[in-house]
Write a structure and sequence with these properties.
Keywords: Signal. This is CHAP domain-containing protein. By secondary structure, the chain is of the alpha+beta class. It has two domains: 107 residues, SH3 type barrels, CATH 2.30.30.40; 116 residues, endopeptidase fold (from Nostoc punctiforme) (Alpha-Beta Complex). Helix content is 12%, strand content 30%. It is built from four helices and 13 strands. The strands form three sheets. Strands 7-6-5-2-8 form a five-stranded antiparallel sheet, with no helix packed on it. A five-stranded antiparallel sheet has the order 12-11-10-9-13, with helices on one face. A three-stranded mixed sheet has the order 1-3-4, with no helix packed on it. A hairpin with a 7-residue loop joins strand 9 and strand 10. Helix 2 crosses helix 3.
């Protein structure tokens, strides 16, 4: 049986090797000049034999929804700051967002560098202060991952995202109505990849609409993914409308 691992490995120095593919995208090292990073990079999990927990957010307190084996190759889509972890490659607060939608501590991933190697993860902006959500974006995503695979929320996508953000309900009858409200009030954006924590809105064939929560980097978590709660690409659902800040003005 795999032993789940986040911390507890002895500190070891990481040999710093800048891969040629990453060096090619760097633009300047002059102080005050922004550094450009790759949009994705490969890494190798190194835990000395145990499985590494993939978590819903950047910390060991977030839900562990799967594991990756020691020696596995993973794809990093972005990196963010989170809980400090001491692992195979020393102590770091950097967490890597993987192509499956989860996060692992960079302390256990060999990337060829002690520093940042991919773009920073982009979070959605704050909702209006007149109606702040009880949960943060990472808290909402964690709540959603705790229900990964559940079929209890089928046909209740709007209730799912509202409850993920800490409300009892959205106050809207359908996601189509919610998406219409976001659009008519200037909150719906149709360009760019939905940032982490955004509400992602869709039309559907029955006119009730659909909504999910963005994990960032083109991934969402929501209902109706293989018949239950799961992770999908943000364009996997038909009739994508756009994304908005997590603003639910009628929520209760």
């Amino acid at each position: 049986m795999w032993k789940l691992l986040d911390v507890s490995r002895p500190r070891a120095a990481r040999r710093i090797v800048i891969a040629a593919t990453l060096a090619a995208v760097a633009v300047g090292t002059t102080p005050g000049v922004a550094q450009a990073y790759a949009s994705s990079a490969s890494g190798t999990v190194n835990t000395a034999g145990t499985a590494l927990s993939v978590r819903s957010g950047p910390g060991a307190t977030y839900d562990s929804w799967r594991t990756v084996a020691d020696g596995a190759t993973v794809t990093l889509l972005c990196q963010t700051t989170g809980q400090s972890v001491t692992g195979t490659y020393g102590t770091t607060t950097t967490w890597d967002f993987l192509s499956n939608g989860g996060m692992v501590s960079d302390a256990y991933v060999y990337t060829g560098s002690d520093g940042q190697v991919v773009d920073s993860c982009v979070y959605v902006g704050d909702e209006p202060s007149s109606k702040t959500n009880p949960r943060s974006a990472n808290g909402a995503i964690d709540w959603a991952f705790q229900r990964n695979g559940s079929t209890s929320y089928e046909n209740l996508c709007l209730a799912f995202v509202a409850q993920a953000y800490g409300w009892g309900g959205s106050g809207w009858n359908t996601a189509e109505i919610g998406g219409d409200w976001e659009s008519s009030h200037g909150y719906l954006k149709t360009s760019g990849i939905p940032p982490r924590g955004a509400l992602v809105w869709y039309h559907n064939s029955v006119g009730s609409g659909h909504v999910a929560i963005s994990l960032g980097e083109g991934k969402v978590i929501g209902t109706s993914v293989g018949g239950g709660v799961g992770v999908a690409g943000y364009l996997d659902h038909d009739s994508y409308r756009g994304w908005s800040v997590a603003y639910l003005p009628a929520a209760w």
